[in-house]
Amino acid sequence: MTGRVATVLTLGCALAACSSHGTTGRDGAVDVGGDARGGMDVADVVDTDESTAPDGDAALDGANDADASAETEEAIDAGDDAEAGFVPQLEPGDTPPARPLQVTATAMQHAHALNGAFLGMDGRVPSIGKLAVDLGISQGNYSPWLGRRGYHVLGVVFTACASPDQWSLGRDVDDLCHADQWAWIAVQVRSRLELAAQQFPEEDWGYFLNPDGSVRWSDVAITGMGPGAATAAYIGRMGARFWRVVTRSGPTDNTCGTGPASTSPDPAQPWFPIADTCDATHCCLAHIAEWLDAPSMTPMSRFYAVAGMRDYRFGEIMFAMERGGYPGQPITFDVPGATLTGSNRFVSMSQGFLDWLNAASTAKPLNTDAVMNIAFAIPLANQNPNF
């Protein structure tokens, strides 16, 4: 098999940093400004079917040989018995795929602009049968980091909330906005998958659709940053059952944090205690979005969050993790010898607001990629791509 990766999987049960939450902060609509898609130019994501493997097909064949001996999965020809592929685990409640995944795309990055959305996958690595939907702040993008680790990736554009955390309008002010966002996002994901399945059949985007055309959300990881992280967390809780919910520099949807923009918040006491009446030293129920107290459609074991202590909304992010039931206690991950197990809450001592997924490698603190591997459940064989 030369110059192609043909993957048939039987799934019987299953780059620059950002620097602010938006120009208007917590009290108004977010104006992402500049390049809102995480630092990539449009030219970087429009039909960039170009291989960067150093020796072209020869390098790919060598990589395929190595993958064939890996303990997790095996790339095989589409004509071979599909049962030879790996079988990822599905938990009770997940929707099984109707057919095997059949990717026959050439061994290169495939990234496309499609009706206002950016999507792609990478043919140089075995696909893991998962779709990542990136919301960004309010405009997601194709993530090469995820693509190189086996995900199909779809970036979605949506409208930011006009009046976030305006509690005079009621505890449900954020909920109502997120519900509208989810309705729009769900339609966009389905329509882009349908269109991509038609235009790029070799990438097999149709695998993530059920026979009735609906999206199989239990094979989808949804992620966002800042305001988009709150949207992702709401959708994972109230919208559908997802494979992963990864919130970067978020969520918030409360005003209980004690960390102002000009100082580093105290990680030991990041939020105000809750009282019946809000005042200068107390938060109250009226300042907490209703959805944070609602039962979650996605198991909470699938929620992961990453935040920086220097983020001016760090306290509110930490409050939302606690109130929303993210598993474990915060782990400071960017210190030598950090233990990264036992929790789904990750905290950086050195950074503030950052796109932990798509930031340039030079901007990421120690162990960031290891944390992302955990959050997105990257198979061991796919964790360190050399292309």
Global Rg: 21 Å
Note the total helix count.
Answer: 7
How many distinct folded domains?
1
Q: How is the biggest beta sheet arranged?
A: 9 strands, mixed
Coarse shape: globular
Helical fraction? 10-25%
Strand order of the largest sheet: 3-4-6-5-7-8-11-13-12
Would you list the SSEs in sequence order as H and E? EHHEEEEHEHEHEEEEHEEH
Quickly give the structural class: alpha/beta
Question: Which range does the strand content fall in?
Answer: 5-15%
Mean pLDDT over all positions: 82
Give the low-confidence spans: 1-86
- Overall number of strands: 13
Distance between the termini: 19 Å
Task: Explain the overall architecture.
- The protein has 387 residues and is α/β, with parallel strands linked by helices.
- The protein has one domain (7-382).
- The chain is built from seven helices and 13 strands.
- The chain is globular, with a radius of gyration of 21 Å.
Give keywords.
nine-stranded mixed beta sheet, alpha/beta, 387 residues, 21% helix
Topology of helices and strands:
Elements (H helix, E strand, L loop, with lengths): L6 E3 L32 H4 L10 H13 L32 E3 L5 E6 L2 E6 L8 E4 L9 H4 L4 E4 L17 H27 L20 E6 L1 H13 L4 E5 L25 E2 L7 E2 L18 E6 L5 H11 L6 E2 L12 E4 L19 H8 L12
Parallel strand pairs: 5-6, 5-7, 7-8, 8-11, 9-10, 11-13, 12-13
Antiparallel strand pairs: 1-2, 3-4, 4-6
Quick take:
The chain is of the alpha/beta class. It has helices spanning 42-45, 56-68, 144-147, 173-199, 227-239, 314-324, 368-375; strands at residues 7-9, 101-103, 109-114, 117-122, 131-134, 152-155, 220-225, 244-248, 274-275, 283-284, 303-308, 331-332, 345-348.
